[in-house]
Design goal:
single chain; 488 residues; alpha/beta; Rossmann fold; pyruvate-formate lyase- activating enzyme; 2 domains; nine-stranded mixed β-sheet; 20% strand
Length: 488
């Protein structure tokens, strides 16, 4: 265990994220004077980083080496919030440079710890900065590599063009969560419950989803709906009849005349059948996602995907035969036992299939996933994601005529990389951009979903629904009242 002792009760998230990025194989724990006494293991740890922050700077002690920081805090009138923000930015620069000097490593995303780096580029472009000025800012202020700075500004520019027709002030998007899956994958930390155990409550769950729909439809009756996204979990764990009931309920309650995109995640090939695809197509669903994650059978078994490569191929071809002309695929880089040959094989097979969009994920080790325990047993070195594997995926997307159009990051990502969405022109996922850039209100329904209200000044307020399916149904009136509190 590597313990970081921080003398102030703030910046814990950023400290943990940066230290963990430099020491990926270590169990990193941040303690403050308020929490130190409650963590006996922290007191006994033989490896520590001690960070002392003061008004005029601070110092960091690592392995007997002391690094000093001097900072002249400047207040602009009474704007202490802005002064605190600048202090935090300068501290993160100091911490990153210290860790870089001490370890001899540089990170592709520099000292950025948030999950939405393109928001920085997007904001600067909106303010009138040129492409070169944005790149210079990201490299100078955040130590982002030239490659990642270029990627960020290119995606931000593309996002701005794609969002030109979105209704910001008088519009919104709708998310509907289906929290059921055939099985839970090794790496998954999302809200999902095994459909085999919960199949008897699915009809009732849809009843409560519709009650939430009724509220949102009435509350947003004067606004324009831009996109609808049905995610999960795996929405296609529902039967064909249940899918039809759900989508019909949406169409009966919302004006879809302005909807630019209606997506349903078909995700798991082992949940896809001909009758389900026909229902989705006949209901006018324009975009679906069928996700292999990898085209290597051994890896599928390791990560708990209870389907074969052949099942995936069959589901994909069946979707094409049904008539779908906007199909996304997800793959994950850094899965257990996968290196360059396995990634190359996956991309070669995907290239032959010619999907319309491709989301390339870098594996993230989430504490709530079974992968976290797997890593404890097998070691982080068993997960390999490199510049080379990222390049293999990017070149495969380029060969398919795709361009990167959205990007996000997560904590504890293998290789400290990112997730990138690629698409053929005209096949970009609008909702994916909206959820990342956080510029439009998203009303979210279902267990574990999070509603986001974007205020006129750009601030964002959130309300989450409880994750447990049965508790969600028991407390449906509370879920609705929480939304009313947010929107009221």
């Amino acid at each position: 265990m590597l313990v970081v002792e921080l003398n102030l009760e703030k910046f814990e998230y950023d400290v943990h994220s940066l230290v963990k990025a430099f020491y990926p194989v270590e169990l990193v724990k941040v303690v403050t004077p308020e929490t130190k006494g409650k963590n006996k293991e922290a007191l006994d740890a033989d490896r520590k980083i001690i960070i002392t922050l003061e008004e005029g700077g601070g110092n960091i002690l690592i392995d007997g080496n002391a690094y000093e920081w001097q900072y002249a805090r400047q207040y602009d009138g009474n704007d202490r919030i802005e002064a605190e923000k600048k202090y935090k930015e300068r501290f993160k620069r100091f911490l990153y440079q210290t860790l870089m000097r001490h370890t001899g490593r540089e990170l592709p995303w520099g000292n950025l710890t948030g999950i939405r780096p393109t928001k920085i580029a997007y904001k600067l472009l909106e303010e009138g900065s040129t492409r070169d000025e944005v790149i210079t800012f990201m490299r100078k202020e955040h130590f982002v590599s030239e490659e990642k700075a270029l990627l960020s500004v290119d995606i931000a520019g593309r996002e701005r063009r794609l969002l030109e027709d979105v209704h910001w002030d008088n519009g919104y998007s709708l998310y509907i969560g289906i929290p059921f899956c055939p099985t839970t994958c090794l790496y998954c930390s999302f809200t999902s419950f095994p459909i085999g155990v919960y199949k008897d409550v699915v009809e009732q769950y849809i009843d409560y989803l519709i009650r939430e729909m009724d509220y949102v439809a009435e509350r947003f009756s004067g606004k324009i709906l831009d996109s609808v996204y049905v995610g999960g979990g795996t929405p296609t764990t529902l039967t064909a009849g249940q899918l039809e009931r759900l989508i019909t309920a949406v169409k009966d309650r919302f004006d879809l005349s302005g909807v630019k995109e209606f997506t349903v995640e078909a995700g798991r090939p082992d949940s896809i059948t001909e009758d389900k695809l026909k229902v989705l197509y006949q209901q006018g669903i324009g975009r679906i996602s069928i996700n292999p994650q990898t085209m290597n059978q051994k890896t599928l078994q390791t990560i708990g995907r209870q389907h074969t490569v052949e099942q995936f191929l069959s589901a994909y071809h069946l979707a094409r035969e049904t008539g779908f002309d906007d199909i996304n695929m997800d793959i994950i880089l850094g899965l257990p036992g996968e290196e360059e040959p396995e990634v190359r094989r996956t991309m070669d097979e995907i290239t032959m299939l010619k999907p319309d969009s491709l989301t390339v994920h870098s594996l993230a080790v989430k504490r709530a996933s079974r992968l976290s325990s797997w890593v404890m047993e097998n070691g982080l070195s068993a997960l390999n994601n490199t510049d080379k594997t990222m390049e293999i995926a990017a070149r495969g997307a380029q060969k398919l005529g795709m361009l990167p159009y959205y990007l996000y990051r997560q904590k504890n990502m293998s290789g400290n990389f990112e997730n990138v969405g690629y698409a053929r022109p005209g096949k970009e996922g609008l909702y994916n951009i909206l959820i990342m850039e956080e510029k439009q209100t998203i009303a979210a329904l279902g267990a574990g979903s999070i509603t986001k209200l974007v205020l006129p000044d750009g601030r964002i307020e959130r309300r989450d629904n409880v994750k447990d399916v049965r508790l969600y149904m028991e407390r449906i009136e509370d879920m609705i009242s929480r939304k009313e509190e947010l929107f009221g």
